[in-house]
UniProtKB/TrEMBL annotation:
Protein's name in the database: Protein yippee-like
Pfam families linked to this entry: Yippee-Mis18
InterPro entries on file: Yippee, Yippee/Mis18/Cereblon, Yippee_fam
Keywords: Metal-binding, Zinc
Superkingdom of origin: Eukaryota
Yippee domain: residues covered: 11-108
PROSITE patterns recorded: YIPPEE (PS51792)
Record-level Gene Ontology MF annotations: metal ion binding
Record family assignment: Belongs to the yippee family.
Length: 109
């Protein structure tokens, strides 16, 4: 964040499998998430993705309605999007994307 990042050009994250651009570095909100495969990042926005069927999920932090997020190009499941939170303290996650670190690649445009 700040000036050092400005020198990096325009970093973005792309699909590790097909290099489809998925989100911009500037949309990164947190690196402190966990998914089945390991570390995951939270983003405010994602592009070139397809949302799966809504489902209820019991996660470590509570119960949510989520939808899987897949790459629009290759179909790889990258993570999920929070659609509803059942606990007030978790409402800030609604509309956010969790993308597994192992599924994306940081690139510079
Ligand atoms: Zn892909």
């Amino acid at each position: 964040m700040g000036q050092m990042d400005d020198l990096d050009g325009h970093p973005l994250y792309s699909c590790n499998r097909c290099r489809n651009p998925i989100t911009l570095r500037q949309n990164l909100l947190s690196k402190a998430f966990k998914a089945r495969s390991g570390d995951a990042y939270m983003f405010s926005e994602a592009m070139n993705v397809v949302l799966g069927v809504k489902r209820e999920a019991q996660l470590i932090t509570g119960r949510f309605v989520v939808a899987d997020v897949s790459c629009r190009n290759c179909g790889e499941v990258l993570g999920w999007k929070y659609l509803k939170a059942f606990e007030d303290s978790q409402r800030y996650k609604i509309g956010r994307f969790i993308i597994e670190k192992s599924k994306i690649l940081k690139e510079y445009s």
